[in-house]
Design goal:
This protein is of the alpha/beta class. The protein contains eight helices and eleven strands. It is globular, with a radius of gyration of 17 Å.
Length: about 300
């Protein structure tokens, strides 16, 4: 859940070119009718409706499988690691931005500090959401990001993580954007999971809107970010079997936002992906599955590779 926002955006009709572009990628990725999108959407705010604190445990939502993909806090892995000497992505730099930090809840004063996102000011960061059983979004995003890093490194890419269990809170949303900019990344993907109403299911990829104000100017990244996001959306369908969101983006799997600091302040192609809704039991069963998280990482990796290879 991209929580560098305070007000959910007003629903709007998806531009025709976005829908057509997504449909084109879906056709090349074995179609968009895979996976479930059942359940009527509730009349609650579509994003961030659950707040930022973890919900009490529930016996109706599965407990996540154990996995060794994420290192222990004492491991302190390097945030930047080169890929193989050769491979299809050799010479490319990819920045992965795992949403939130599981320790943000212990540093509310620090993460509530306002930072400049170009057009306005927002909180430094937030705690993110969780499943009803208490599986935190921050744990999910870091696990998927580690899997994604391995897949990209195996193709020769240099991979930089904005955060890797190596700091007490944050980083703030403006720093997350700055890390990608300073790395001169060829692509940046911010990994999230949503916290919407039960019955709201599926993934969506968030694209930067044309924004210009203060330190924000997305004019040079709107088009390449749309290409990156459209490819990720189409290949995420193929690799995970999940359907595009049934509550955001008009079933295109794409959404355009101008209120996210991580996108507004980026000077390199960047998108967010909401991999599913943690508060829906059916989506939560996927998000808490280690095998599905591997598929999610594969879908994102394939989308990035498709974009970088042209």
């Amino acid at each position: 859940m991209p929580y560098d926002e305070s007000v959910p955006p007003t629903p709007r009709r998806r531009p025709l070119f976005v829908t057509v572009a997504f449909a084109t990628v879906c056709l090349s990725a074995a179609g968009c009718d895979a996976g479930g999108g059942s359940g009527a959407a509730q009349d609650l705010p579509r994003q961030g409706s659950s707040g930022t604190s973890a919900a009490p445990p529930s016996t109706n939502t599965p407990v996540p499988e154990k996995t060794s993909a994420s290192p222990t806090p004492s491991a302190k892995p390097s945030k930047s690691a080169p890929g193989r000497a050769s491979g299809p992505l050799s010479g490319k730099t990819v920045v992965i931005d795992p949403g939130h930090n599981p320790n943000n809840r212990l540093h509310t004063r620090e993460i509530n500090r306002q930072v400049d996102i170009g057009t306005t000011h927002k909180e430094c960061d937030t705690t993110g959401t969780s499943t009803n059983s208490g599986y935190a979004e921050a744990r999910f995003t870091l696990d998927v990001s580690h899997r994604l890093r391995t897949l990209l490194q195996d193709q020769g890419a240099k991979v930089v993580l904005t955060y890797d269990n190596d700091r007490p809170y944050g980083p703030c949303v403006d720093e997350r954007a700055r890390i990608g900019n300073e790395a001169k990344a060829d692509a940046v993907v911010s990994v999230h999971a949503d916290g919407s109403a039960v019955g709201n299911r599926g993934f969506h990829v968030i694209l930067p809107a044309p924004v210009r104000g203060g330190a924000a100017d997305t004019s040079k990244i709107v088009e390449p970010s749309r290409d990156l996001g459209t490819r990720i959306a189409g290949l995420f369908v193929r690799d995970t079997g999940s359907a595009p969101s049934n509550y955001v983006g008009g079933n295109t799997g794409l959404d355009i936002r101008k209120d996210l600091g991580g996108l507004n302040l980026s000077t390199v192609p960047k998108v967010f992906i909401e991999c599913g809704n943690m508060r829906d039991p059916k989506d939560a069963a996927l998000l808490t599955s280690a095998s599905w998280r591997q598929k999610a990482a594969q879908g994102i990796a394939d989308g990035i590779s498709s974009y970088l290879n042209g």
